[in-house]
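Recap for those who missed Tuesday's class. We walked through two folding examples back to back. For each one, the amino acid string is listed first and its predicted structure tokens come directly after. Nothing is annotated here on purpose, so try labeling regions yourself before you check the end of the notes.
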Amino acid sequence: MSLLFESIRIEDGVPQHLEWHERRMNRSIMEVWGSSINVKLADLVVVPPEHIHGLVKCNIRYGPEIREIIFQFYKKRIIRSLRLIECDTIDYHLKYLDRGGLNALFHLRNGCDEIIIVNEGFLTDTSVSNIIFHDGKKWVTPARPLLRGTCCERLIEEGFLTEQDIMAGDIGKFTGCKLINAMRDPGEQELIPVSAILEQGSPMMD
């Protein structure tokens, strides 16, 4: 059984949104191992002095108990183009440390920066994030994600996001999209136009 992991955003030494990560960790441990260790991240995430300034990613690797906590400075990867990749068999409903299936799909991007995984005709996630679309009035996110991220859960609960079934053929109804996860807040991302989303067999244009 693969270990699980959790990525936590730390801004100038302050861990962000710990309660959402605790929820997922405790839920995942119960599902996989049938036990509860009642994770308390405020006690676990102690930022070392060399990482108290700037944007830092804290990676917690765990099984039925905490295995490793790693801190590293975070540099955002720029994503300007995406390719639709169809796969009806992948399962990533838990945040597994083993990302072999996702990595295999990512390698099919054929010149694009990132992929959007299409499952049974419906949009799900990218290889590293949830995705949100703007229809000119509101932000929506696919109702059938591979993994519902903590950032996405929080924004749905806050009313910023609405869940909606989105089929691959619906992309043209939107003006653009953004990729979101614990390290990628929507307010920090530029809108990617839907014209930058290519079909699996389409060529990459200069």
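Example two. Treat it independently of the first, because the proteins are unrelated.
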Amino acid sequence: MTHTCLYQHHVSAGAKLVEFAGYMMPVRFSAIKDEHLAVRENVGVFDISHMGLFQISGSNAYEFLQNLSCNDLRKAVDGAMVYSMFLNESGCVLDDVMIGGVGPDEFVLVVNASNKSKISSWMNAHLMEQVRIEDLNDDHSFLAVQGPKAVEVLASTFGLPLSERSRFAVWFQEFEGKISILMRTGYTGEDGFEWIVPNTLVEKIWGQLITASVTPCGLGARDTLRLEAGLPLYGQELSETITPLMTRYQWVVKLQKEFIGKAALEAAKQSPPVWTTVGFKMNDRVIPRTHYEIVEGGEVTSGTLSPSLDVPIGMALVKPEYAKPGSTIHIQIRGKQNPATVVALPFVD
């Protein structure tokens, strides 16, 4: 079992810890609802050091990543994070990733914790000459500072000039005499920043944020926040049996360029889709959970009681004829067929 550099801080804070992707991670520090609402209304900080972090560099780094990415990375070379997916030859999702250019022929790649080993092997299997892959997890930690007051708090606590940085910007940031990587991104639906910092600095940064009354948050609130924002979770909304054409993220597929899995997606577009991803709200106060069966066909991929809306919500794979907002589907919960209404995503804007 692997521990992040902040593990003892989490233990001392009384966090409830769970095993996730080989790490012992805090699922909550207080109540998930309180942490969730702190991010929606103020600012919270997450230890997300379990996420896979790579730096890709070399004269062929751009071409290498373009071949793996179904999205076009031309925007990434201008210092922007680009959301994309790595696909297998069948066009199904190996992982959804974030890629950003941090310098000439130099990129940062963020992958899901549970897929890090798989993506590392995939990259090495398709490696080009003049490309170097560095594992940043060896000596870096990863923090997410999220919420409408994230800019204000980071500026006042660390003197970082962030207000002029655009959404999805990524850059090298010198801090305490060391180089870190900052990006204006997140997985909560709120404004905020994700910060790759040397392990030697992370305890100090975390401590200063807590002293500044930033709410420490665990994976529980991260999951409810991303679900309210309609964001996918690998292993639920995305997998190696799901293509991007079945998701809300068909826009990441840029068929005008070459990438692994392109031929399979071109073929798939010639036939009507079998499944599509939707959001829904339960008509009654019952909680949908992952893999619950939908009577009309398909299954729930994620579900929870929304802390912001105080109603049960979820995402599901359904037949296309039930994808229109306002459609009714029925979910099997404890032997009963419970009605739900398909709604537009995100649940919370």
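Answers for example two:
The first helix runs from residue 7 to 12.
The first strand starts at residue 16 and ends at 20.
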